[in-house]
């Protein structure tokens, strides 16, 4: 089976599993979107996924996206196909915000007021209104980005001053687990936190829950996920860690996804 055919087949299978999980939870499958996590995958794999009907892709590194996103856009334009929506799902350093906003449509990893201020400043320069999600560190893992759940309300309140950012949801990466079911509690906590924060005046559009990856996405759907960050289950194995990674870049969060 060719690369294009394999990706199309995997996408169809993923959508069927998402639909089954949504029905188990009494949800409409149309409320769940697969976001293809294409880190350490070639641009051609991303093109295959869009041809198969995927509408959103994600990258962890600004450095990797710098070449990949234009290459994907050019290949799709040559076929008369629209570019996908690109999500940034890795930690964002403030000195890379300007470039990130030139590449990405959505930033899922807002994790502090200082980063929010810089995103606001750069989005204003580009005359853009940027959808953002707050990354929440549910398990207090030092190696992962995100705010503690108790600090999320403070960040939501600060967002009222950011007129060029649109706060639309929460994102989380649960602790690694050997069984998908072990992630259920974390997913439920993120949903509960989202519902609690929506009562704030600054959060009327806080609706998206970006949670669930290749190993646990069905549990995430059952617990209310609206965006699933799917990597290996869609694209197949990635290049080994370190290959294709920009020099000096830190290991990506959520490698299992």
Give an overview of the whole structure.
The chain is α/β, with parallel strands linked by helices and 257 residues long. Helix content is 39%, strand content 15%. The chain contains 9 helices and 8 strands. It has helices at 3-24, 43-51, 62-78, 97-103, 113-125, 152-158, 184-197, 217-222, 232-235, and strands at 33-37, 56-59, 85-88, 106-110, 130-135, 165-171, 208-210, 227-230. It has an 8-stranded parallel sheet. Strand 2 (56-59), helix 3 and strand 3 (85-88) form a beta-alpha-beta unit. Helix 1 crosses helix 2 and helix 2 (43-51) crosses helix 3 (62-78). It is globular. The two termini are 23 Å apart.
Chart the SSEs and their pairings.
Blueprint lengths: L2 H22 L8 E5 L5 H9 L4 E4 L2 H17 L6 E4 L8 H7 L2 E5 L2 H13 L4 E6 L16 H7 L6 E7 L12 H14 L10 E3 L6 H6 L4 E4 L1 H4 L22
Parallel strand pairs: 1-2, 1-8, 2-3, 3-4, 4-5, 5-6, 6-7
- The name of the CATH superfamily reads Alanine racemase
How would you characterize the largest beta sheet? Answer: 8 strands, parallel
Overall form: globular
Helix content: 25-40%
Number of helices: 9
Short summary:
By secondary structure, this protein is of the alpha/beta class.
């Amino acid at each position: 089976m060719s690369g294009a055919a394999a990706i199309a087949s995997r996408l169809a299978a993923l959508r069927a599993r998402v639909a089954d999980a949504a029905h188990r939870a009494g949800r409409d499958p149309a409320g769940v979107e697969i976001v293809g996590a294409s880190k350490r995958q070639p641009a051609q794999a991303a093109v295959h996924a869009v041809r198969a009907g995927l509408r959103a892709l994600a990258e962890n590194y600004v450095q990797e996206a710098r070449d990949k996103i234009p290459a994907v856009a050019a290949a799709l334009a040559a076929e008369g196909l629209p570019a996908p929506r690109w999500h940034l799902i890795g930690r964002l350093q403030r000195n890379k915000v300007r470039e990130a906003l030139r590449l990405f449509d959505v930033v899922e990893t807002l994790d502090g007021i200082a980063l929010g201020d810089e995103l606001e400043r750069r989005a204003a320069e580009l005359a853009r209104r940027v959808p953002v999600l707050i990354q929440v560190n549910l398990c207090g893992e030092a190696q992962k980005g995100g705010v503690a759940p108790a600090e999320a309300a403070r960040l939501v309140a600060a967002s009222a001053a950011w007129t060029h950012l649109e706060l639309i949801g929460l994102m989380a990466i649960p602790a690694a687990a050997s069984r998908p079911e072990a992630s259920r509690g974390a997913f439920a906590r993120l949903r509960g936190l989202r519902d609690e924060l929506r009562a704030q005046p600054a959060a009327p559009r806080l609706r998206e829950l970006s949670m669930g990856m290749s190993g646990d996405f069905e549990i995430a759907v059952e617990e209310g996920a609206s965006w699933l960050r799917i990597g290996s289950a869609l694209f197949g194995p990635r290049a080994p860690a370190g290959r294709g990674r920009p020099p000096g870049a830190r290991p990506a969060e959520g490698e299992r996804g």
